[in-house]
Design a protein that fits this description.
- With about 725 residues, the protein is an alpha/beta fold.
- The protein has three domains: about 280 residues, 2-enoyl-CoA Hydratase, Chain A, domain 1, CATH 3.90.226.10; about 180 residues, Rossmann fold; about 110 residues, N-(1-d-carboxylethyl)-l-norvaline Dehydrogenase, domain 2 (Orthogonal Bundle), CATH 1.10.1040.50.
- It is built from 30 helices and 21 strands.
- It has an eight-stranded mixed beta sheet with strand order 14-13-12-15-16-17-18-19, with helices on both faces. Strands 1-2-3-4-6-8-11 form a seven-stranded mixed beta sheet, with helices on both faces.
- Helix 18 links the parallel strand 16 and strand 17.
- Helix 3 runs parallel beside helix 4, helix 10 runs antiparallel to helix 11 and helix 29 packs across helix 30.
- It is globular, with a radius of gyration of 28 Å.
- About 45% of the residues are buried.
- The N terminus is likely disordered.
Length: about 725
C-alpha cells in the first residue's frame, strides 16, 4: 500500500511522514532563540510517540531541529528554578526518562540529526536514539554540562553515555561539563557519522535504512579492549570509580555535591543495571536541584543569559559595524586578543609591534592556539589556515586606514599610550575607536591625549585572554554611547562575558581583588604560612590561592597597580611593605621562576613554597590560624569593597558585580558572587564581623555605608533579611 507524505503540525514539534515511511520530527520551540526542552511540550511529544508506535507502515524516525545551528541546548532551567521541592524535580526527571525510554524502545531505527549545540537533555534525547549523525560545523558541540548548574544529567544521561563511550570517558564529560566537537565525538563513538549541514537529513535517512536491515540497531561502543576488560569486572570498575572520586574531591574540595552523585549513578547503573541507575539518577537530580549550590549556579546562569541582551548603555544605542580590528603590541595580551578576534569573532586583525622579534613571538602564540584547536578536532585544517591568515603582522601603520577598532595592549606607561592614540588618530578614519587594555591607568587620563576623546574606551581583558571569560568595558564621561555599544558587541563576538563599569582606579575587578590580596599579605606578615592561606581559600572555592595568583600575574604588575589604588583610596589600600622586599630580591613570580613558590622543581605536580621567602621577610611560618579567620580576613575585604563599588556606581547592577567577580577573579560560582554571598551569609552577620575585625586590626575593615544601611533596615541586597 502506498504511504503518502503527511504532516502533523504542533507547537514545538512537527511530524512529517515521508513517502518512504520515514517520519521526520522537526523540533522548533516557539519564542525561543534555541531549542530547550520544556515540561509543557511533553504531552505533545508523547502523543507523537503514540502515533509512531501505532503506525504499521513506519520504517524509521529522524529527529532534527528547525533552528539552524542548534539541535537542543538542554532543558529549560527556568522550569527547574520554579520547582519548590525535590519530589517535584524528581518527577520531571522521571517524565524525561520515560519519554526517552519510548524512543529507545521503538521497533524501527531512530536517528538524531544534529546540527549545532546538542547539550544536556538534547544529548540525552540523541543518545536514546539508535544512531546519531552530526554536521561538521564548528558550532556543533555535544556535552552534558549539568554539573555547571550544580546538577547531574536527569533524563538517562548517567546511564546511556557510559554505555556508548565507556565509563572513564563518560565520567570525564559529566564531571567537567566539557563539550566536544563533532569529529571528536565521532572518534569517541558518541556519533556515527559527520557530514556537511547541506546533506544532514539525507545522511540521517540513509542511516535509518542501514540500521533497518540489521538485527542490532545500536552499534557496538567504540571502547578500547583494555578499557572494556577493566570496566567489565567488579575489581576493575572499583578502581575506575575510586580514582574518579579522588579526582573529583581534589578538584571540587567537597564544594560541589553533584560530582559524587554523578559517580554514584554511573556506578549503580554499571553494577546493578539501567533501571536502578535511572531511579538513582532521578532521586539525586531532585535532591541536587534544591541545594544552595545549584540555586546560586542557576542565578549565575540567568544573569549571563540576561547580559547577552544588554547593549551596555541605558539608551539601548546600537553598535557600529566592526569589520576590521587592529591590535597594538604583540606580547601575550596582544597576541591573545588577536587570537580571540580571529578565532571567535571571525574578524581580520592587523597586529603591530615595534620589533620583528616581538611580532614573531606573537604570531607563534596565535598559531599555537589555533593548532591546538585543530588537534582537538574543534576545527578542520582549512578553517585553521583561514583563522591564521586573518592575522597580518606589521611594524608600521600600513593597513590601518580601514580599521574600525584599535585595541592597545602595550606597557603601562601613560606617555606611551598617549603616543599610541596620536598615531592612531593620524592613520585611522575619524570613526575608529581606540580601546586600551590597561589594568590600572584611568581611561580619562589616557583620553587626555586624544583629539577625539569620545572614541576612547577601556577594554580590560584578563590573562590568559584565551581562557579568561570576562571583559571589562570602561567608559569615561566623554565616551560616546555608540562606542560603548560597539565594544560590548565586539567583546561578545570574541566569546567574552562583558560588564560595563565606571572609570576609576582599578575599575571594578582589580579594585575588589586588591584588598583581598593585600590582606593575605598582612596575614603572611603576621606569620601565617603561605600554603595555609592558599589552601584555605581554595577550600572556600577560589580556583587558586592569593599567593599562587600573585605568582601567575606577576609581583611587578601588582606592584604597579598597588600605588595607584593607595593614592586613590587611602589607608585601606596601603600596600604591605613585604612586597617591595620581594621585588628587590628579583621575585616577580612564575615569569622569573622565583616568587612565593618554587618553579625549579615540582613534587608530584604540586607547587612547593619557597622557604627563602620566610627568611627574606624574617617570618617563622605557622599553621595554627583557624580557617574561618583566614576566610573572614580576606574574603570580607573583597565583598566589602564590592559593596562600596555598588554604592559609588562603579558597577551598574548587583548582577554585574557578581558576574564580574565570578568570571574575572574566580569568586566561587556556587556562592553566587559577592552580593549573593553577603545575602546568604546575612548582611547583619557581615557587618558585625567587619566591626569585630575593625576593632582588632584597624579601619581598613570599616563596613561600607551601604552595608550599614541594609543592616539597619534588616534587608539584603536582593530584599528580605
Amino acid at each position: 500500500m502506498e504511504h503518502k507524505e503527511t504532516a502533523t503540525q504542533g507547537e514545538g514539534f512537527v511530524l512529517d511522514m515521508r513517502e518512504d515511511g520515514v517520519a521526520v520530527i522537526t523540533i522548533d520551540i516557539p519564542d525561543e532563540r534555541m531549542n530547550v526542552l520544556k515540561a509543557e511540550y511533553m504531552d505533545q511529544a508523547n502523543n507523537l510517540a503514540d502515533q509512531l508506535e501505532q503506525d504499521p507502515a513506519l520504517k524509521g524516525v529522524v529527529y532534527i531541529s528547525g533552528k539552524p545551528g542548534n539541535f537542543i541546548a538542554g532543558a529549560d532551567v527556568r522550569m527547574l528554578a520554579a520547582c519548590s521541592s525535590a519530589e517535584e524535580v524528581t518527577e520531571l526527571s522521571r517524565g524525561g526518562q520515560r519519554f526517552f525510554d519510548r524512543i529507545e524502545a521503538l521497533k524501527v531505527p531512530v536517528i538524531a540529526a544534529i546540527d549545532g549545540v546538542c547539550l544536556g537533555g538534547g544529548l540525552e534525547l540523541a543518545m536514546a536514539c539508535h544512531g546519531r549523525v552530526a554536521t561538521d560545523s564548528e558550532q556543533t558541540r555535544l556535552g552534558l554540562p549539568e554539573v555547571q548548574l550544580g546538577l547531574l544529567p536527569g533524563s538517562g544521561g548517567t546511564q546511556r553515555l557510559p554505555r556508548l563511550v565507556g565509563i572513564p570517558a563518560a565520567l570525564d564529560l559529566m564531571l567537567t561539563g566539557r563539550q566536544v566537537p563533532a569529529r571528536r565525538a565521532l572518534r569517541m563513538g558518541l556519533v556515527d557519522d559527520v557530514v556537511p549541514a547541506s546533506i544532514l537529513l539525507d545522511a540521517a535517512v540513509k542511516r535509518v535504512r542501514e540500521l533497518a536491515g540489521r538485527r542490532r540497531r545500536q552499534p557496538r561502543p567504540k571502547i578500547r579492549l583494555g578499557q572494556r576488560l577493566l570496566q567489565s569486572n567488579p575489581l576493575g570498575r572499583k578502581l575506575i570509580f575510586d580514582r574518579a572520586r579522588k579526582t573529583a574531591e581534589g578538584r571540587s574540595k567537597g564544594n560541589y555535591p553533584a560530582l559524587p552523585r554523578i559517580i554514584d549513578c554511573v556506578e549503580i547503573g554499571s553494577s546493578r543495571g539501567i533501571r536502578p541507575g535511572l531511579e538513582a539518577e532521578a532521586r539525586h537530580f531532585g535532591e541536587l536541584a534544591m541545594t544552595p549550590q545549584a540555586r546560586q549556579l542557576m542565578n549565575i546562569y540567568f544573569a549571563t543569559v540576561e547580559m547577552k541582551k544588554d547593549t551596555g548603555t541605558s539608551t539601548g544605542t546600537k553598535a557600529r559595524p566592526v569589520n576590521r580590528v587592529a591590535v597594538l603590541g604583540a606580547g601575550l595580551m596582544g597576541a591573545g586578543i588577536s587570537y580571540v578576534t580571529t578565532a571567535k569573532a571571525g574578524l581580520p586583525v592587523r597586529l603591530k609591534d615595534v620589533s620583528a622579534e616581538g611580532l614573531n613571538r606573537g604570531m607563534k602564540h596565535i598559531d599555537g592556539e589555533i593548532t591546538a584547536r585543530r588537534e582537538r578536532g574543534a576545527i578542520g585544517a582549512f578553517e585553521a589556515g583561514r583563522q591564521l591568515r586573518r592575522v597580518t603582522p606589521t611594524l608600521d601603520y600600513t593597513g590601518f586606514g580601514s580599521v574600525d577598532v584599535v585595541i592597545e595592549a602595550v606597557f603601562e606607561d601613560l606617555d606611551l599610550k598617549h603616543t599610541m592614540i596620536q598615531d592612531m588618530e593620524a592613520h585611522c578614519p575619524e570613526h575608529t575607536i581606540f580601546a586600551s587594555n590597561t589594568s590600572s591607568i584611568p581611561i580619562a587620563r589616557i583620553a587626555e591625549g586624544a583629539s577625539r576623546p569620545g572614541n576612547v574606551i577601556g577594554m580590560h581583558y584578563f590573562s590568559p585572554v584565551e581562557k579568561m571569560p570576562l571583559l571589562e568595558i570602561i567608559a569615561t564621561d566623554e565616551t560616546a554611547p555608540e562606542v560603548v555599544a560597539t565594544t560590548v558587541e565586539l567583546g561578545r563576538r570574541q566569546g567574552k562575558t562583558v560588564i560595563v563599569v565606571k572609570d576609576g582606579a582599578g575599575f571594578y575587578v582589580n579594585r575588589i581583588l586588591a584588598p583581598y590580596i593585600n590582606e593575605a599579605a598582612h596575614l603572611l606578615s603576621e606569620g601565617v604560612a603561605i600554603d595555609r592561606i592558599d589552601r584555605t581559600l581554595m577550600q572556600f572555592g577560589f580556583p587558586v590561592g592569593p599567593f599562587a595568583l600573585l605568582d601567575e600575574v606577576g609581583l611587578d604588575v601588582s606592584g604597579k597597580v598597588a600605588p595607584i589604588l593607595h593614592e586613590a583610596f587611602g589607608e585601606r589600600m596601603r600596600p604591605v611593605s613585604s612586597t617591595e622586599r620581594l621585588l628587590e630580591d628579583g621575585r616577580y613570580g612564575k615569569k622569573s621562576r622565583k616568587g612565593f613558590y618554587r618553579y625549579d622543581r615540582r613534587r608530584k605536580g604540586k607547587k612547593e613554597v619557597d622557604a627563602k621567602v620566610y627568611k627574606l621577610l624574617d617570618i617563622t611560618p605557622d599553621n595554627s590560624m583557624d580557617p574561618e579567620e583566614i576566610i573572614d580576613r580576606t574574603v570580607l575585604m573583597m565583598v566589602n569593597e564590592a559593596a562600596r563599588c555598588h554604592e559609588e556606581g562603579v558597577i551598574r547592577s548587583l548582577r554585574d558585580g557578581d558576574i564580574g567577580a565570578v568570571f574575572g577573579i574566580g569568586f566561587p560560582p556556587f556562592r553566587g558572587g559577592p552580593f549573593r554571598y553577603m545575602d546568604s551569609r546575612g548582611v547583619d552577620n557581615v557587618v558585625n564581623r567587619l566591626k569585630e575585625l575593625q576593632a582588632q586590626h584597624g579601619d581598613r575593615f570599616a563596613p561600607a555605608h551601604t552595608l550599614l544601611e541594609l543592616s539597619r533596615d534588616g534587608r539584603g541586597f536582593h530584599g528580605g533579611r
